[in-house]
Design a protein that fits this description.
- The structure holds two protein chains of two kinds.
- By secondary structure, chain A is of the alpha+beta class.
- Chain A is 48% helix and 11% strand.
- In chain A, the strands form five sheets. A five-stranded mixed beta sheet of chain A has the order 1-2-10-7-3. In chain A, strands 4-14-11 form a three-stranded antiparallel beta sheet.
- In chain A, helix 8 packs parallel to helix 18 and helix 11 crosses helix 12.
- The C terminus of chain A is likely disordered.
- By secondary structure, chain B is mainly beta.
- In chain B, 0% of the residues lie in helices and 17% in strands.
- Chain B has a three-stranded antiparallel beta sheet, with no helix packed on it.
- The chains are: A alpha+beta, B mainly beta.
Chain lengths: 434, 58
């Protein structure tokens, strides 16, 4: 049988899939942001200053922009919502400075009609029904089964490296139509491309990505298959005047890089956060075990309670007022979704993880025109993984031989557990397996 | 506001607001279409979630 998943324990993964090491490689500090964010939430809902400066940690985002723009941070649910939904005023042009120089022109840095027309190319392949059908039937189900089967008779595992990390990178790689042996080299190259500060190493990463991807793109143009790259090369892109054309190789490559970059870490970390929260709240794990209709709520709660990325940035495209605070065009707005997701006016006892809360929207995946394209795929992967963990790893519990897991990562981006060392009872049919 | 009274419905996953007065003409839903008459196979024009993913606007 062809392997459906990447093995992260035996292969050289460098700093990848260790949230703390990944953060260190990008120059971020790893401080837990919540104590300071919760303190700042007690002040005005819009405050002057970048979130990192208000928190008193070394600047990272604020160094990215030329001309020393003014920075503001918004904390409340209502104003965060207002900012996300007003994309004309709070524009994604901010990504011209954050990702465009490395990932190229992508959905992230586009606005308006061009963003809509470009997003429409991929939208059908990331809608909920496609995640529940095509992604699940072709890739997710088999990947989850393979990963759980690798550990089920061992009685112990690090679910971070054995399940949470390899699942999304495997699903995206094989869903693209790229050979599984390239999963780790491709992910490494994208990390180097976005995190590396040495231009020579950035160029090497670029060449590695082109080596892996351009051949697949050319092959699918000649002979389309049932994979995502085939869907991209055969899709019709609508120009402003209504005419249509196929995407160029660069555009297809850009799309793929964006999906790896944006989706490569979030599902991994969020699945880990969810499992960690359930292990820390065994009564809620038991509730979920007995009532799987709570799966959707469990994931919605996990993403609310501890989103992997506490802040999103936007460029203030025109003079405006938000929450009574005037902002000049050219300013940078830091949208603190971690704060908005714990807004006291929206949730009771919002610092508590509680999967029985009524379903309610929040901002872990952003909102508005730029709401995360892959959020339904991400939810599907997490649902299937959680189901398998509950069904196939009986009596799941923390491994007492290891320190308790900690959520680490950069202070304001890419947070997740350092490890998830667990024990479980080997399934009866596996106990005597050689 | 109860479900029956709401004239606006918000997508729980991206915040898109379906306003009955405006409908969603790009998807074939005419202005003035009440939520109850929006076709069951209609989905959020921003994030594609189906009608189940909407809640009455606050």
């Amino acid at each position: 049988m062809n392997q459906k998943t990447v093995n992260l324990k035996d292969d050289d993964r460098g700093v990848l899939f260790n949230a703390g090491e990944e953060a260190a490689s990008t120059g971020w500090v790893s401080a837990d942001p919540y104590p300071k964010i919760l303190e700042l939430m007690q002040g005005p809902p819009v405050q002057k200053g970048a979130l990192e400066d208000l928190m008193g940690i070394p600047g990272h985002f604020s160094k990215l922009f030329p001309g020393e723009p003014e920075h503001y941070t918004v904390f409340s649910f209502d104003l965060v919502n207002q900012a996300f939904l007003d994309a004309e005023t709070f524009s994604n042009k901010v990504y011209d400075y954050m990702t465009k120089n490395r990932l190229g022109d992508s959905l992230l840095n586009m606005d308006g009609s061009r963003h809509t027309r470009t997003r429409n190319i991929s939208k059908p392949y990331f809608k909920p029904s496609f995640a529940q059908g095509w992604w699940s039937d072709n890739w997710i189900g088999q990947a989850v089964d393979e990963l759980i089967s690798n550990i089920v008779d061992k009685g112990c595992a690090d679910l971070n490296l054995d399940l949470c990390a390899p699942l999304p990178v495997s699903v995206v790689t094989i869903g693209f139509g790229v050979d599984m042996k390239e999963a780790l080299p491709l992910r490494k190259a994208v990390h180097e491309l976005t995190a590396q500060r040495d231009p020579k190493l950035v160029e090497e990463a670029n060449q590695e990505i082109q080596r892996i991807m351009l051949g697949v793109i050319a092959a699918r143009r000649a002979d389309p298959r049932d994979d995502l790259i085939s869907k991209f090369v055969t899709a019709d892109f609508s120009e402003e005047d209504g005419s249509t054309r196929k995407l160029t190789d660069d555009e297809v490559l850009g799309y793929c890089l964006l999906i790896i970059f944006a989706g490569g870490g979030t599902t991994w970390r969020q699945l880990g956060i969810t499992i960690m929260a359930l292990l820390d709240n065994p009564e809620q794990m038991e509730l979920l075990r007995n009532d799987r209709s709570l799966l959707r709520s469990a994931i919605q709660e996990s993403t609310r309670w501890y989103p992997t990325d506490p802040v999103f940035l936007r460029y203030v495209a025109k003079d405006t007022v938000l929450g009574g605070v005037e902002m000049k065009a050219g300013s940078i707005l830091h949208i603190c979704v971690a704060a908005a997701n714990r807004d006291r006016s929206q949730w009771q006892d919002p610092d508590r993880f509680d999967i029985t809360r009524p379903l309610k929207r929040h901002f872990a995946f952003g909102a508005g025109a730029h709401a995360c394209l892959g959020q339904h795929l991400s939810r599907q992967e997490m649902e299937e993984a959680l189901n398998a963990v509950i069904d196939r790893l009986p009596n799941l519990r923390w491994d007492p031989d290891y320190l308790h897991a900690e959520i680490t990562g950069a202070a304001l981006v890419g947070r997740g557990p350092d490890a998830l060392h667990v024990r479980f009872d080997p399934a009866p049919e596996c106990v005597h397996r050689d | 506001m109860t479900n029956e009274q709401s004239k606006q419905w918000t997508c729980m996953y991206c915040g898109y607001v379906y306003d009955e007065a405006e409908g969603d003409p790009d998807s074939g839903v005419a202005p003035g279409t009440p939520w109850s008459e929006v076709p069951e196979d209609w989905c959020c024009p921003q994030c594609s979630v189906d009608k189940d993913g909407f809640e009455p606007a606050q």
